[in-house]
Write a structure and sequence with these properties.
361 residues; alpha/beta; five-stranded parallel β-sheet
Length: 361
């Protein structure tokens, strides 16, 4: 492992915070001699002002200072910056190591501080900092590879349905936005972003002559089409991934209806998982306003009228209201991730034979 702080220590910026000038001066000389870039602050307020203007890698701060204490400074730093903090104090009886670490400090030094100890602690914190950065980078690369694999699997199903990657992007952004509007947690919003595009992954198991049929489906064909929900559930089942677990629920339940007349289980009301209720509306809106093998895109006004008319029947009434009250935000997503050919005016709009089937399929 290459240690960047050893190869070019001047790139590392250390901030010394202490109300005693003599301590600041001695520590700054030692840090400068070690080759690091060093700044000093006489108070917590002064330190925060410096950090607003300059990236700081490690802050070394006293605890007992006028104004903002060292502990309060630790809390403020960890809430805003990615800097690591080493805390110094001579009042050992008042501050336990566990308490200081719990607040977010990386290390703790007893005063009086020996200069060689300060430099050893700095090296240790910098080494841990670099290890953490490398671990985070590796994690991000693994996550990106995982999400790329999921997206390619989704894209395979969408291409079979003659859809484009734009549909995946719209579904994920629509679902994320609606989840945010509904006040879901940040984790649940992220789950909706990544799992919602897999709602129709089961269509990969539907014969092309049914999936791509331009005319109305026969009753038998419609029953086969409905199995894409359970096929999708089987594809995604038994995963330890929270994203795939969420996607499994969505795949199975996004065609359930608020009034209990949906499929495959005939669930009603709040017995339908929230993620399924969200995607039920979002998928319908996107399908209605997009070009499909069997239909031209609907004008947004017509699509919204259909969804409003299905309030309390097909869709959760609360979700319909939130969607309609924020329609301008959804249209921004549609505009960003749609082709010009998907825009159609009321005067140019024609119903197709299979139009109303969208509310069932």
């Amino acid at each position: 492992m290459s240690k960047k702080y050893e190869q070019n220590p001047a790139l590392i910026h250390i901030l010394i915070v202490d109300d005693e000038k003599s301590i600041r001066d001695v520590f700054q000389m030692a840090v400068d001699h070690a080759g690091y870039t060093c700044s000093v602050a006489e108070s917590g307020d002064n330190a925060l002002e410096i950090m607003k203007k300059t990236h700081i890698d490690v802050v070394v701060t006293d605890i007992q200072m006028p104004g903002i204490s060292g502990l309060e400074l630790v809390e403020r730093i960890k809430g805003i910056y990615d800097s690591d903090v080493i805390v110094m104090t001579g009042f050992v009886e008042d501050f336990t190591y566990e308490k200081i670490i719990e607040l977010g400090a990386r290390d703790f030094i007893h005063k009086p501080v020996r200069l060689n100890e300060l430099l050893v602690r700095l090296k240790r914190v910098l080494n841990e900092r670099e290890l953490l950065a490398e671990r985070n980078q590796a994690f991000e690369e693994i996550k990106d590879a995982y999400l790329d694999t999921v997206n390619r699997l989704v894209l395979a199903a969408e291409y079979k349905d003659e859809d484009t990657g734009d549909h995946i992007l719209r579904m994920s952004r629509y679902s994320m936005l609606l989840a945010q509007i509904m006040g879901l947690s940040a984790d649940d919003v992220q789950l909706m972003l990544y799992s919602s595009p897999m709602h129709d992954i089961g269509k990969i198991g539907i014969p092309d002559h049914i999936l791509l049929k331009k005319g109305k489906l026969t009753d038998e064909e419609f029953e086969i089409m409905k199995t894409h929900t359970t096929i999708g559930g089987k594809i995604l089942a038994d995963s330890k991934s929270k994203i795939l677990q969420s996607a499994e629920i969505i795949a199975i339940t996004h065609h359930e209806k608020w009034n209990g007349k949906g499929y495959p289980q005939g669930l009603a009301g709040e017995d339908i998982p929230l993620s399924g209720r969200i995607v039920a509306l979002i998928d319908t809106f996107d399908a209605l306003t997009s070009r499909r093998p069997y239909k031209d895109p609907y004008p947004v006004q017509v699509a919204c009228e259909i969804i409003s008319n299905e309030k309390g029947k097909h869709f959760d009434p609360e979700i319909v209201d939130l969607f309609m009250n924020n329609i301008d935000e959804f249209l921004k997503i549609k505009e960003k991730f749609s082709s010009p050919e998907d825009n159609v005016s009321i005067s140019d709009f024609l119903w197709s034979e299979r139009d109303m089937e969208r509310l069932s399929i």
